[in-house]
């Protein structure tokens, strides 16, 4: 098997360990000795419910998720959550402030790349009033590109926003917040309005479980599609603080936008993520990946591993820059550990670079346009 | 392998052929000779896009879907579509009749079981005005149970409804429309308002690809979760007539409920079902199942097979009723070919029946409460 397998650098769906795929292949035929394959087993069966609970605890333990937060599983990817966080948190805001006019309900977005920009587009599509708390494109020298995490003095937050949104790692642009609170390119937690129940929302789709989540407990919602780091596409993971799991139907009666039932955090939470049939197969594979991750030493292990890998890659990039071979596209200190974005310089050089890589079995390096 | 596999009667996720599972297990490690597993491959890769197009054509050919209709793939199951059809067809109605007050926008629902009842609940949650075109519980002798398809004289449709909704096969209740147009328990197409562009919506989740779809071309939307007949959970298939793929954003500006982008038929159609990362693994397995189905003789083959199986089962049930062993729960002529619902009579008899079945490797017979 390993003979024919290539090394896949695709940004997502991304590579899975061979041992996990072997185990998954077995589970397709016989899940946990039930004689029924994982793709066929009832999601209400004892065996599956236990497995889902295990998956929940693998995440809770490795990320140190406090009991104030629920871990939920759903479908629709990060894009589904672009809408769901707006609708659920607008409902929450409506219940907190029933008499405020719609124009008074402001959603703060930090825009650091293509994905956070898409999230803004969706909030506007849904009719929300958006305040751009910071826009990386407006910084000196950036032009129209996202090349850095804004410095702390570039942020302006609203006093009582419906939500405060950021994307921790931008896949297309290769920009990531520093996970050191004190770093200039970290998220400016100290500038947020003072509240113990801040509506802070983070898209962790492309860095979930790759390292610790700074100030996890201060977040209202953290979401991630599984397909970047922990499994196949089709599974979305939510970490939601309990005060954000609100009665969306009561809010709709007060004038909030009605929330489709599959997007209601409350419907999901009340049914322990089994309101409707979940995507059992991605759940199964995510469980295998996170079990392996736990055995290897958990998120701490990956954090150290990823730090070393990123360091090596950025060092090589720097050398290449000095030689005029490469040009990094992201400002120092804002570069992603997950996806490193650079140009290969010279006429036809990029094609030669990609061909050479493919010949050595390294696929999916091209990335986005 | 087959030694340890049991016979799985679960209503869904339901059993998959061993040959498909073997093939799927191989694809997990190496999809179509790419050296990359199906769970890891980019959904933008040539190989995957070709596969998706093949899946589309496997459905189009076997069900004889006309070019007036698009076939789309999404996530979220039938429950997601309970909301999506309401939102997209409300948007369509708004664009057709911009000045009508909301109370004038009526949604017609035919209620024949638990799933169509859930669809009504969701329409009401979203604030829609519902007309129950027929309710099987109100028929003589039914009491609070769904035990039959209403006779044609029990329907009352609105003159210009936003949608006309029915569930072709009710899994919990074991009730299914006859697929013979002339049968008394067929869907009353001849009673519908006269229009070439009827907003007729059918939930085919539990009978999709098990037999032909009567009057398919007259439908506005047919939807189905894959997990009942053609693959694992996590894939939803839509057959949508082109006039129902509308500019939901323009409709929202006119006052329609905003539609989350992952639920917009237009966003899906414009991106050939690749607006966001699709659930590649269920798509892969559905392709294997439908390829096999085509080789066996297509939907016609299954229709004949299912007719014979159902006949045998209902005959046995009748014999058992005569002997006082069983009691069928559905009126003759309304019984489902997919899921046959009956009581086992006598103190402790049901438990003995289920135990006996399990001993012979027949699992999942218990069904819903």
Please indicate the count of domains of chain A: 2
**In the CATH scheme, what's the topology name of the largest domain in chain A?**
Aspartate Aminotransferase, domain 2
As an assembly, this protein is homodimer
Structure annotation, total helices of chain A: 9
Given the helix and strand composition of chain A, which structural class is it? alpha/beta
SSE order of chain A, one letter for each helix or strand: EHHEHEHEEEEEEEHHHHEEHE
CATH architectural arrangement of the largest domain in chain A:
3-Layer(aba) Sandwich
Name the pair of protein chains with the most residues at their interface, and give those residue counts. Answer: A-B, 71 and 71 residues
Tell me about the largest β-sheet of chain A.
Answer: 7 strands, mixed
Give me the count of strands of chain A: 13
Termini distance of chain A? 32 Å
Q: Percent of residues of chain A in helical segments?
A: 25-40%
CATH superfamily of the largest domain in chain A, please? Type I PLP-dependent aspartate aminotransferase-like (Major domain)
Average pLDDT confidence of chain A is 91
In order across it, which strands form the biggest sheet of chain A?
Answer: 2-10-9-8-5-3-4
What does this structure look like?
The structure is a homodimer of 369-residue chains. Chain A has 369 residues and is α/β, with parallel strands linked by helices. Chain A has 2 domains: 52-289, Aspartate Aminotransferase, domain 2 (3-Layer(aba) Sandwich); 298-363, Aspartate Aminotransferase, domain 1. Chain A has helices at 18-29, 46-63, 77-96, 114-125, 248-253, 265-270, 280-296, 298-322, 349-359, and strands at residues 7-8, 69-74, 106-111, 129-135, 163-167, 169-170, 175-176, 200-203, 221-225, 236-241, 326-328, 342-344, 362-363. In chain A, the strands form 4 sheets. Chain A has a 7-stranded mixed sheet with strand order 2-10-9-8-5-3-4, with helices on both faces. A two-stranded parallel ribbon of chain A has the order 1-13. In chain A, α4 (114-125) links the parallel β3 and β4. In chain A, α2 crosses α7 (280-296). The longest helix of chain A is centred in the C-terminal third of the chain and has 25 residues, at 298-322. The first copy, chain A, is globular and about 65 Å long. The model of chain A has no long low-confidence stretch (mean pLDDT 91).
């Amino acid at each position: 098997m390993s003979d024919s397998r290539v090394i896949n650098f695709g940004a997502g769906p991304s590579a899975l360990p061979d041992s996990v795929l072997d185990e998954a292949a077995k589970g397709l035929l016989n899940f946990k000795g039930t004689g029924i394959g994982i793709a066929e087993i009832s999601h209400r069966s004892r065996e599956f419910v236990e497995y889902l609970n295990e998956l929940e605890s693998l995440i809770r333990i490795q990320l140190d998720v406090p009991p104030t937060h629920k871990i939920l599983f759903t479908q629709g990817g990060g894009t589904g959550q672009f809408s769901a966080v707006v609708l659920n948190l607008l409902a929450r805001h409506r219940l907190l402030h029933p008499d405020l006019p719609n124009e008074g309900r402001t959603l703060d977005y930090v825009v650091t790349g293509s994905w956070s920009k898409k999230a803004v587009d969706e909030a506007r599509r849904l009719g929300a009033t958006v305040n751009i708390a910071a826009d990386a494109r407006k910084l000196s020298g950036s032009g129209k590109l996202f090349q850095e995490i804004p410095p702390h003095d570039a942020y302006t937050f609203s006093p009582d926003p419906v939500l405060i949104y950021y994307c921790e790692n931008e896949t297309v642009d290769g920009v990531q917040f520093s996970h050191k609170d004190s770093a200039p390119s970290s998220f400016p937690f100290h500038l947020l309005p003072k509240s113990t129940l801040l509506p802070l929302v983070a898209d962790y789709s492309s860095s979930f479980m790759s390292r610790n989540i700074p100030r996890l407990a201060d977040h209202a919602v953290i979401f991630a599609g599984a397909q970047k780091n922990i499994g196949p596409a089709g599974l979305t993971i939510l970490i939601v603080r309990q005060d954000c799991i609100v009665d969306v139907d009561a809010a709709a009666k007060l004038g909030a936008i009605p929330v489709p039932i599959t997007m209601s955090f409350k419907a999901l939470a009340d049914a322990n993520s089994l309101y409707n049939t979940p995507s059992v197969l991605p759940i199964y594979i995510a469980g295998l990946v996170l079990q392996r991750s736990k055995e290897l030493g958990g998120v701490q292990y990956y954090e150290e591993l990823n730090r070393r890998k990123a360091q090596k890659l950025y060092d090589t990039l720097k050398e290449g820059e000095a030689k005029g071979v490469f040009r990094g596209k992201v400002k120092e200190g804002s570069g992603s550990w997950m996806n490193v974005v650079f140009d290969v310089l010279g006429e036809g050089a990029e094609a030669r670079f990609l061909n050479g890589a493919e010949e050595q079995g390294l696929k999916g390096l091209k990335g986005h346009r």
